[in-house]
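Re: [ENG-882] Designed sequences occasionally contain unexpected residues at chain ends

Forwarding the minimal case from QA. Structure tokens:
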């Protein structure tokens, strides 16, 4: 209950946080939103934007993609209408606020552009170079990337001070977190404007500094990679998922990978291993499943079986033929310790590296964005409840067994030596 009380007050304090330290400039009001990419994420962002009376302009390569995007928005609003959360008039009004284009017509009047195209740097560079000369010089440009550093995307920008990241979580209309990513070049006005608009959309907003994977993707990847290594060692799919659901996660890591998309997980892994080396090296089992072309729930072919409606069934035993090796029983305690401590240690590294502004933001981000058990308070509250000395001891034991994968974050070592905690006084 203490952890849930903390989350309540922490999320309330974030509502008053403008996203910058010191005196905050007045945020730019977003009345018109341009979205590059009418896919699942772009449509999801549009579906919540129109419900705040924002005029939305879609851009995609052809009318078929735009049509599918409009159909996705229609589906989200239809669900709200069916549940009597909005009226028929509101439904019609919201749908009238969104329109699509295959060129950039209408983008000259947008206040904010959100790019939601594939995770490919060359493509992100191209769309930024195309749209920036068209939009107003005061308009903000945000990328919805989940892994690529914003500074790298902004390399081609004429106005890098107007470029930042707005990392929404899937499905956009249900997930409460928005991660705003800023570079050293991002202006305070752009930051506070993105934060203010995120709050208007009903999101809990954390601001993090730029880096590969930012905070949420980086910590989640450490957790998922360890689950993959357990598969390499013979643990069963259902055993891994059950152990972490029993710990408190809403779904297990293998189920989550199916939901996110195995192909997307593979792309994320390449970016992070390039940045962080062996600590983020994807497992052999995950690599084989990616190479086999399995995509997860969206393709009805993942670690689990799915019916035509996309409902999950039992484990697809044919996956074991792909990843090889005999299955063996691995204790739930071993699964939980390795996966959770990989995430906790990565969170501490993010704080020590300056990616996070505070432990509070890290706990809110982990709970609201990647499913860390709320009753455990988040990774930093978890460290405090277990004591940092005990966490360091467990990490050192694991690092002796798996060299370089569990090396304790310098911040944790320093805190253990001085008997400090993240939230309390020195002990």
């Amino acid at each position: 209950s203490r952890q849930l009380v903390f989350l309540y007050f922490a999320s309330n304090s974030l509502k008053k946080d403008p996203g910058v330290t010191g005196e905050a400039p007045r945020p730019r009001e977003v009345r018109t939103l341009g979205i590059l990419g009418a896919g699942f994420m772009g449509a999801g962002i549009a579906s919540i934007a129109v419900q705040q009376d924002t005029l939305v302009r879609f851009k995609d390569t052809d009318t078929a993609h735009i049509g599918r995007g409009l159909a996705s928005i229609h589906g989200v609003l239809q669900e709200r209408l069916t549940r009597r959360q909005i009226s028929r008039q509101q439904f019609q009004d919201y749908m009238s606020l969104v329109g699509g284009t295959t060129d950039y017509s209408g983008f000259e009047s947008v206040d904010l552009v959100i790019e939601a195209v594939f995770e490919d740097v060359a493509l992100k560079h191209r769309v930024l170079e195309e749209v920036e000369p068209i939009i107003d010089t005061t308009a903000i440009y945000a990328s919805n990337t989940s892994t690529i550093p914003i500074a790298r995307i902004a390399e081609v920008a004429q106005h890098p001070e107007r470029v930042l990241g707005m990392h929404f979580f899937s499905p956009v209309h249900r997930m409460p977190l928005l991660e705003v990513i800023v570079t050293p070049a991002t202006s305070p006005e752009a930051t506070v404007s993105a934060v203010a608009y995120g709050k208007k959309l009903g999101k809990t907003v954390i601001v993090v500094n730029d880096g590969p994977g930012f905070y949420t993707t980086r910590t989640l990847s450490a957790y998922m990679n360890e689950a993959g290594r357990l598969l390499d060692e013979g643990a069963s799919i259902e055993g891994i998922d059950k152990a972490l659901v029993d710990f408190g996660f809403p779904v297990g890591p293998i189920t989550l990978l199916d939901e996110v998309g195995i192909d997307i997980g593979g792309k994320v892994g390449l970016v992070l291993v390039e940045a962080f080396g062996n600590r983020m090296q994807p497992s052999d089992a995950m690599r084989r499943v990616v190479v086999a072309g399995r995509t997860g729930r969206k393709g009805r072919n993942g670690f689990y079986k799915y019916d035509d409606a996309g409902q999950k069934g039992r484990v697809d035993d044919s996956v074991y033929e792909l990843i090889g090796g005999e299955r063996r029983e691995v204790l739930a305690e071993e699964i939980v310790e390795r996966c959770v401590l990989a995430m906790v240690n990565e969170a501490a590294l993010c704080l020590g590296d300056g990616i996070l502004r505070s432990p509070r933001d890290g706990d809110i981000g982990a709970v609201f964005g990647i499913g860390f058990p709320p009753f455990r308070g988040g990774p930093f509250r978890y460290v405090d409840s277990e004591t940092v000395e005990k966490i360091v001891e467990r990490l050192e034991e694991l690092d002796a067994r798996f060299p370089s994968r569990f090396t304790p974050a310098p911040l944790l070592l320093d805190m253990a030596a001085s008997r400090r905690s993240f939230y309390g006084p020195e002990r």
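QA comment: On inspection the terminal residues look reasonable. Residues 332-352 form the longest helix (21 residues). Proposing we downgrade this to a documentation issue.
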